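Project channel, design review

CF: Before we commit to the Linum trigynum constructs, I'd like one complete example in the thread so the newer folks can see what an input/output pair looks like. Taking Acid phosphatase.
RD: sounds good, go ahead.
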Amino acid sequence: MAIRLKMVLSLLLSAAFLVSTCHGSLLLLELPSEIHPLRPRSGSSGDHVAGLSCLSWRLGVETNNLIGWKTIPQECEGYMGNYMLGEQYRSDSRVVAGEALVYAAGLDLAGDGKDVWVFDVDETTLSNLPYYAKHGFGAEPFDPTPFNEWVLEGNALVLPESLTLYQKIVSLGIKVVFLTGRTEDQRSVTETNLKNAGYYTWEKLILKTSSYSGSTAVKYKSSERGKLEKKGFRIVGNMGDQWSDLLGNSTGLRTFKLPDPMYYIS
Ligand SMILES: *[C@@H]1O[C@H](CO)[C@@H](O)[C@H](O)[C@H]1NC(C)=O
Ligand SMILES: [Mg+2]
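CF: and here is what came back for Acid phosphatase:
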């Protein structure tokens, strides 16, 4: 019943969104803020480009059927930009975070302070969309130098759907652990960025140390989650935008995959 009510509410919210975008003004309800102000170009979804369905390619990525890729197909860059900056990415994120929220609310928690939820950072709790809007949506190979400069600016934005989930997690008494591929030297800027984005409290922020240089994200994250379990924590949920956040060992009771068709991390 509660779920049905939520669905109706979210339909109403979508309707309000449509009304507000058609008339260019907010008529009914306060809407969640845009992550990044660029709007998709209308009529250029680029679904089929040179015989390739970019939507099918994106689906292949999200289902972990396409793995190990270095760049998105060149001809899909326009499509991917429209997707990431448009309503579909937000809607896809909303479904994932909404499902996680219902799941978390239904957990039978021990209440002993040992239940934890693991969140990835980039494209999970924080969004680097301004960076990708400037540097492209994945058709060029990832370049760590300008990306790390961007990270050190500390201006990554919030992914609003994840913040809503985070707030619920905290209110349920589940402890939050951020587990990120960002490196230890980026700790203070990451802490500040998380706080500025609305993530005020956490149990641990785990960043990659040099001992993991050369190992995959799956290995690094599995190992760090294993350490949490050895300390007696129970990972009741685990959310990330990469399959490498969610595969391997000690993955948690349930995993949630946020959309990210722009890059692949093994
Ligand atoms: C998972 O655990 C097994 C057994 O300890 C180990 O051999 C394997 O390397 C681990 N996998 C990852 C991805 O850490
Ligand atoms: Mg990530």
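RD: helpful, thanks. The first strand starts at residue 48 and ends at 49.
CF: Confidence is low (pLDDT under 50) at residues 1-31.
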